[in-house]
Design brief:
Helix content is 57%, strand content 9%. α5 links the parallel β4 and β5. The termini are far apart.
Length: 484
């Protein structure tokens, strides 16, 4: 009996330890500030928050031919300001990067310890960041077989590692090697202050298997991960990276830490920071964590699934225009717009039903509900968007007719006076307010059609011969190779 009791006690302890390990395991998703075009800029923290990331990998600044990094954080007051802004926005500084070594050769920088110490000092100022990133790209790839150059790199990395260990830090190196060769390199370096800053792109480009390579390298040898590929498509569309399989093996390894998005930008919109990094952060959070539920719930209950998807796609055209579709902010805005379309559909469906009994009452109730809900929609948007962005949403919902029509009138009649332009714009804006509540695209255009007629009558009264103006305009457009 005693031995069974011992067995069950041991089993309980084992299971408890397993549960504790699973509970302790966590993943944090960040972005690289130099890649989101915010290298050591205060705006990086707010942008990281908008993207839905947990933190950032802050760069030490450019190096080039400078003796030291172009590092603002040497100024204690500047560093304190950065840290305060990060804390106030709930954004962590998960790693500090010495990305200058992507282009600079570590073996030719005799002040390498001064550069590394500068990085460690910055890590302390940022609240004790533990992981530093040191790419070896500037060394080329010949060092992997050149014994003399390799010996220099190993010696310098040992020195760096020992200093890192003494200061409670670890330096993650980025190498062109697979797991087996990285393990050999780490053994040569002989310092627990050096680990591998793992990079999916390297593995993919060499045709290696990421889950297999990760498992062979081992959790203790990986201090952080650059969880992206070269620029081509977003991570969710990248067939060369099996993210669920990667998550599974990291779970099995019991690895904890930061996954940073460095690249994986869609090359058709490579400069759209919010769309690219918002999409990649969201995908990683969907795979590695539960992506946060939007504050605004979508009113899809009882509606046909295909219809709901169509409306969501329509709503996303507005957030695409704002560049926020894949961000938490974008999800809330999408749901607000989609709910507006659902509300309009419900109002007009009720009107059509009541028309069979009392057409006048049906129209009156419809107008009343449209009026009340119109301002509720704008108020909902104002909780998440600035006024100029709300205008963009309205424009997308009305096919950008305001701008197209206004520009056409100004191009057709170059002699329009300022007050005439203002009147045209005022009427088009009024039309837009009505059109966003219309029940179909046809009805939206009909609203604008009425106001275009009003504009034409106004211009005629002002003495313009619209027939002649239009004919002259057609000639000018054809002369410059355009079409109408």
């Amino acid at each position: 009996m005693k031995k069974y009791r011992i067995f069950f006690i041991g089993l309980f302890i084992s299971l408890s330890a397993g549960v504790e390990m699973l509970m302790a395991q966590s993943y944090q998703i960040g972005v690289c500030d130099w890649m989101i075009l915010k290298r050591q800029k205060l705006g990086e923290f707010d942008l990281a928050r908008q993207l839905g990331s947990d933190g950032i990998e802050m760069d030490m600044g450019a190096l080039g031919q400078r003796e030291m990094f172009d590092n603002k954080m040497r100024d204690d007051r500047e560093a304190a300001h950065f840290k305060h802004v990060a804390d106030s926005l709930g954004i962590q500084i998960g790693a500090i990067a010495m990305s200058g070594f992507y282009a600079q050769d570590l073996t030719k920088r005799d002040n390498y310890m001064a550069l590394v110490d500068d990085c460690f000092d910055t890590m302390d100022k940022m609240g004790g960041t533990r992981v530093a990133f040191l790419p070896l790209g500037g060394c080329g790839n010949d060092w992997t077989t050149d014994k003399v150059k390799r010996a220099v790199i190993v010696k310098r990395l040992h020195d760096i590692g020992e200093t890192a260990k003494s200061r409670g830090k670890v330096v993650g190196i980025d190498t062109p090697l697979d797991a087996k060769s990285n393990l050999k390199l780490l053994k040569e370096i002989k310092s627990n202050g050096i680990a591998i800053f793992y990079k999916f792109q390297t593995i993919v480009e060499n045709g290696w298997d990421i889950p297999k390579d990760l498992k062979q390298l081992g959790a203790k040898n990986i201090c952080a991960i650059h969880a992206s590929n070269t620029d081509r498509v977003w991570l969710r569309n990248d067939s060369t990276i099996n993210m669920p399989a990667i998550k599974k093996v990291l779970d099995e390894m019991g690895w904890n830490g930061w996954l940073f998005v460095e690249r994986s930008r869609d090359t058709t919109m490579v400069r759209n920071v919010k769309m690219n990094y918002g999409a990649n952060v969201r995908y990683l959070k969907e795979i590695f964590n539960s992506y946060p539920e939007p504050e605004v719930k979508i009113d899809s209950e009882g509606r046909d699934a295909d219809y709901v998807n169509t409306i969501i796609g329509r709503a996303q055209k507005a957030t695409d225009e704002l560049g926020i579709t894949w961000t938490p902010l974008g999800q809330n805005v999408v749901n607000i717009i989609a709910n507006r379309y659902f509300k309009l559909n419900d109002i007009y469906a009720e009107r059509d039903s009541l028309k069979q009994k009392d057409k006048k009452l049906a129209e009156a109730l419809c107008d009343s509900k449209l009026y009340r809900s119109h301002y509720g929609f704008i108020a909902d948007l104002s909780m998440y968007l600035k006024e100029q962005d709300i205008v963009k949403v309205k424009d997308v919902m009305t096919f950008n007719v305001v701008k197209v029509t206004y520009d056409a009138h100004c191009d057709m009649i170059p002699t329009l006076k300022d007050e005439e332009k203002q009147q045209i714009m005022a009427w088009l804006i009024e039309a837009r307010e009505l059109a966003i509540d219309a029940e179909s695209s046809k009805k939206k255009h009909e609203v604008f059609g009425k106001y275009k007629g009003r504009i034409n009558n106004y211009l005629t009264r002002r003495g313009y011969d619209l027939v002649k103006e239009r004919e002259a305009w057609y000639e000018r457009v054809r002369a410059r190779g355009g079409k109408l």
